[in-house]
Amino acid sequence: MIISPSVLSCDFGNIQRDTEMLHQSEADWLHIDVMDGVFVPNISFGFPVLEAIRKHTDKVLDVHLMIQHPDNYIQAFKKAGADILTVHYEACTHLHRTIGAIKEAGMKAGVALNPHTPVHLLEEVIADLDLVLIMSVNPGYGGQKFIPSAVEKVRKLAKLIKENNSKAIIEIDGGVNLETGKLLAEAGAQALVAGSFVFNSVDPKATISALKQL
Ligand code: DX5
Ligand code: ZN
Question: Does ligand 1 come within 6 angstroms of the Cβ of 137?
């Protein structure tokens, strides 16, 4: 299992310390949640914070854009240090073009689906994708309750990927803990994002190791 702890739940006054902790942990990727206050009802952080994180780790930066018009910022995210750039299906009118532009900029391309968006809408682009991010909460905040229908979506997505000979990784975001993580792993999830479960635990590194075993 690929583990991608969400930096959104870290202590921003100690971002270097928390990034170094993740760097030393068994985390595979660092999940970076960018929110614009328009696509989602919250604002998180942007390029300067991403650049600061990049300085303290060479692990994969898994950037989740919860923003309108992501096309306008593809080069800027590459420059700031993103390795994987995931855009929301619901925010992209010309999704095929956006995916191409992300790859052309030298990053892996991901598409995120809100809880109400069915996986079959990805049928025409699934072969081009490096990653699909299934949202198991409505995006905007850390620490929300897991939406159980995400488990069945993982199964449907695994089928779609297989049918289309796609190499896309199935990643899940929202309300992930050891309990929900187990169900997701059984359904075919390959990468798990976890924010509050990691950072609110007594020993975040041990929590990451436990998730890694799923
Ligand atoms: C939610 C973000 C998530 C968030 C997950 O909008 O996309 O990545 O940080 O937080 P937890 O794991 O606490 O649900
Ligand atoms: Zn996220």
Answer: yes
Point out the catalytic residue in the list 83, 128, 130, 173.
173
Q: Hey, is 23 helix, strand or coil?
A: helix
- Assess contact for 160 and 120: CB atoms under 8 A: yes
Side-chain half-sphere of 204: how many Cα atoms within 13 Å? 24
Residue 6 CB less than 6 A away from ligand 1? yes
Q: What residue spans define the domains of the chain?
A: 2-212
Distance CA 202, CA 36 (A): 31
How far is ligand 1, taken at its centre, from the CA of residue 40, in Å?
12
Q: 130 an active-site residue? A: no
Task: Determine if the pTM surpasses 0.85.
Answer: yes
Ligand 1 in contact with 150 (CB < 6 A)?
Answer: no
Atom of ligand 1 nearest to the CA of 40: 6
Please give the backbone phi and psi of residue 126, each rounded to the nearest 5 degrees, phi first: -55, -35
Domain spanning 2-212 has what CATH number? 3.20.20.70
Active site residue 62: no
Contact 149, 115 (CB under 8 A): yes
Nearest CA owner, ligand 1 atom 10: 142
**Residue-level pLDDT, tens digit, the chain, 214 residues:** 999 999 999 999 999 999 999 999 999 999 999 999 999 999 999 999 999 999 999 999 999 999 999 999 999 999 999 999 999 999 999 999 999 999 999 999 999 999 999 999 999 999 999 999 999 999 999 999 999 999 999 999 999 999 999 999 999 999 999 999 999 999 999 999 999 999 999 999 999 999 999 9
